[in-house]
Amino acid sequence: MASRRPTFDADxxxxxxxPRTVFVTGKGGVGKSTVTAALALAWRDAGARTLxxxxxxxxxxxxxISGKRIGYEPVPLGEHLAAMRxxxxxxxxxxARMRIKVKLVxxxxxxxxxxxxxxxxxxxxRDLLILGKLWSLATEVxxxxxxxxxxxxxxxxxxxxxxxxxxxxxxxxxxxxVGPISxxxxxxxxxxxxxxxxxxxxxxxxxxxxxxxxxxxxEQLEEQGIDVAATVLNGLLIDRFAPExxxxxxxxxxxxxxxxxxxxxxxxxxxxxxHTRSTDQAEERERLDAGLGADEAALLPWMFSAxxxxxxxASLARWLTSAGQEVLLxxxxxxxxxxxxxxxxxxxxxxxxxx
Amino acid sequence: xxxxxxxARRNDVQHRLGDRLASVRVLLVCGSGGVGKTSIAAAxxxxxxxxxxxxxxxxxxxxxxxxxxxxLDKLEDRERPVTLPDGAEAGGSLHALMLDPKTAFDRLxxxxxxxxxxxxxxxxxxxxxxxxxxxxxxxxxxALERLYELDRGGKYDLIVVDTxxxxxxxxxxxxxxxxxRFLEGRSLRWFLRPSAKVxxxxxxxxxxxxxxxxxxxxxxxxxxxxxDTSEFLESLQGIYGVVSxxxxxxxxxxxxxxxxxLAVTSPERESVNEAVNFWELLEARRFRFVGTIVNxxxxxxxxxxxxxxxxxxxxxxxxxxxxxxxxxxxxxxxxAGRDQVRLDELADATGDALTVSVPRLARMVNDLDGLxxxxxxxxx
Lengths: 355, 380
What we know:
The complex is a heterodimer. Chain A is an alpha/beta fold. Chain A has 13 helices and eight strands. In chain A, strands 3-4-2-5-1-6-7-8 form an eight-stranded mixed β-sheet, sandwiched between helices. Chain B is of the alpha/beta class. Chain B folds into two domains: 1-98 and 256-380, P-loop containing nucleotide triphosphate hydrolases (Rossmann fold, 3-Layer(aba) Sandwich); 101-139 and 175-247, no CATH class. Chain B has 17 helices and eight strands. Chain B has helices at residues 4-14, 16-22, 37-50, 65-69, 101-112, 116-123, 126-134, 136-153, 169-184, 186-192, 211-221, 223-235, 237-255, 269-285, 308-312, 319-349, 368-379, and strands spanning 26-30, 54-59, 80-82, 93-98, 158-162, 259-265, 288-297, 354-359. Chain B has an eight-stranded mixed β-sheet, with helices on both faces. In chain B, helix 14 links the parallel strand 6 and strand 7.
């Protein structure tokens, strides 16, 4: 199957990853949807036919790229880019139709309250339906027999629920050793554990709890035999100030002893805050990299913007390529020698702000 | 509406969080993940304990966040006493508990099953073993089960519950109803019928209007799954009555005057929208909404930012440093402006409800002293 896939320009690939099915997950509030959207734009820009998948009841990645309403059928958001949302009822309908063939009977079955209750109450059935749908999307071919999608990016539930989702096929296969559900569960389980086709992208913030949770989740995924394709450290504040400069700012604040006006005091205090914060972030980044061993985390800068617009996501997509990462690393390193360079990253992230 | 009115309203009601909590006996703290919900729940629990109340805080989140925040290295399924800092009023105490759904479920089975044989049959069931630890829905049921037990124990003046993320807050609110519907519904009764030894006698032999539906269901899932599920549900038969009674109590507890719901959000738009949706949900049910805590708010910037000349004039600040100080101020003022707009929108959208803003801190809260620093903005 891999041989039929087109080859992609390695330099343009985000996170150095060839297109596949990825689950983007992490602690709540770390920017999973933003990273999902940025990764989608980046893969699309590298020439991959890309599908963003949202799951009913969870955050919406597609909204950061387009205002289009999306549903169970993929909606085009531009060339080689589409988005869809997996809803339980539609997935159940599709599955029932697949097994029953007679559409009318299948639909009546799904709308029966007993079946609805069964789907809600049967352990893990919902997660299996979602995974089953993803498997069928990943194996779908077009009229020329080519895979319809090169890249499928799933904006997944946060850590605990995300891990539950990825494990569920295996859990069900163990619960019901025989029968059609079991066969489905085994097939889907083999798919989620195939590192050639499926991986997880972990998103973290440079803060204590998100880093800890990311490292724990990574270990759990490895134990389950699920491939962690990449780890992304999001929201990195790039220090505009050298420690020695912050000493001078602190001295000025103390010497002024209230004699500075409100605006100047705010400017100085803001600088101290930003420096303290980015120093802590740097420690967390080190801790994450130490935990990851040979696999370094990819970095994304904090965006000073009132609202994340498509332009911001596009610039995040560029940061995700190897060229983008190189520039970012240079500027991070530059920030310790001469902080002037850091200002450039902030300027770049602010450049396209519509406000 | 002008910008000043909601702002004024906010200041007006800000001091009332303490007043509003005084009559609350069960506080459910809700919000999307990563907004600092656990810290806020713990900070409120700690502060109420410092004021002399007997408080227990229950976290549902699978991560060990509360444990870290409370300075405990291990939270079990049992309540653990937390040593209060100096200065607590007499009579005040704090206990903390992290939900372990598997242990809680096992204990529920042990406590409610009537015979040893019944207990072993449930605990040994293959489906039970897989779902009691892995299924995400179980968490919510067990949290409510735990809340029921804490409340019934009568040892506390206030129970603070740190709930799962907001997309699940709705599910949490509905879970007593959903559980009761399932326990009293047709589908469970069907599975429990003695004739439902699916796959042995064949579904066509089953009478009633559900025969054909079940026949088709069997074609989808296979006879084995239906039979196994049937056996599993049957094994639990002895505890349905108890569970059903408890969930009726929890359902009444949600509607009780002494039960309050508190939303926690970040100033991000999605998070604020979720808080507004949550408020609407509670209004519709006439549940008591205490208010919204907006966490990690960028502090107000002055109306006029500093000029580069003014910064350069400060002793020790050169031209290059002044330029970057100015740029940082502009960036942060933009964030402050955004957060202020969100706070106003939120206050406008949630009527009389309380909106409290907590400024972002340079460092993360991870101990009792850190939690104490959250109290002044929460209660000011």
